[in-house]
Amino acid sequence: MSPEVIARFNAFIAAKGLRKTVQRDAIVAAAFSTTEHYTAEDLLAMARRIEPSVSRATVYRTLPLLVESGVLKEMDFGRDHKIYDPNYNEHPHHNHLICTDCDKIVEFEDQHIELLEDCISKRLGFSPASKSLRIEASCDQLKKMGACEKRKR
Amino acid sequence: MSPEVIARFNAFIAAKGLRKTVQRDAIVAAAFSTTEHYTAEDLLAMARRIEPSVSRATVYRTLPLLVESGVLKEMDFGRDHKIYDPNYNEHPHHNHLICTDCDKIVEFEDQHIELLEDCISKRLGFSPASKSLRIEASCDQLKKMGACEKRKR
DNA sequence: TTAAATGCAAATTATTTGCAGAAGC
DNA sequence: GCTTCTGCAAATAATTTGCATTTAA
Predict the structure, then answer these.
(1) How many domains does chain B have?
(2) Is the model's pLDDT at B142 over the cut of 70?
(3) Which of A14, A64, A117, B96 is deepest in the core (most CB within 10 A)?
């Protein structure tokens, strides 16, 4: 998926009259080198593995461009930092379930949700833009076995 | 609604062996004196109108107690601050639609969503805890009339 | 009396920004 | 060559915390 997404971002940059730089290229390449969610700090580390000269400031300046161009989604799950999701290109309609036990984020798709959201928006006099369903739930595995295989750290 | 909710919070405080103070009382009274959403800073201002000695630190120390006791919901809509919602006591299953044009938050209830969320959680091996559907949408009124009556500021 | 609560001010932490030098077009 | 970009370090802003003092039980 990376090649097309990166090309799309480069077209966006060009259309805006902005420039192509080694640092930007590294950040964008890093941003689509994984299907995991990541923070700005994570992205900095990943980008530096590609191009060590990348600075934190440039990451923070590039992230809004990625979001504005539509290739990356910014999410806020009430933690102290924002999380970025590179998977909307492949799965444009997915939602997130957050485990209250292990903090793990599970992605899922459901067409009924999609439909329902459209109905509700229209009923209230709005046109749906981006929708996000956040389900906070506890892991059945944890309850049964006293542990959760998804638990990190 | 305030009286019962406040009694519920006081019972929680007592059960935890914590104390009743004028500052705490003022913050709690302020927290349920409105059906609007508010920030920590807003709550500080409201509480100070009741009891001027209330400090910012005490507001920040009391908010987690209100949330933990279940009478107040903390929400994060990706702004730079958290927003608190006192309406879950009257409407335990409501969801939020956020207007991308005017930033207004509209509350709504829908039993289909409720049901769907339960199904999805179970399908993925989780037990639903708290669920929040966030729909970001643009205002039809704005598009038609070039203005949105809900726009503030 | 004694543990908990308070206000204040300083600390923390993610993110933003000013600036002078470097680099794309 | 003229802008845009960059790294750095300082600034910002919401929230948290240490501490000496006050207060509820």
Answers:
(1) 2
(2) no
(3) A117
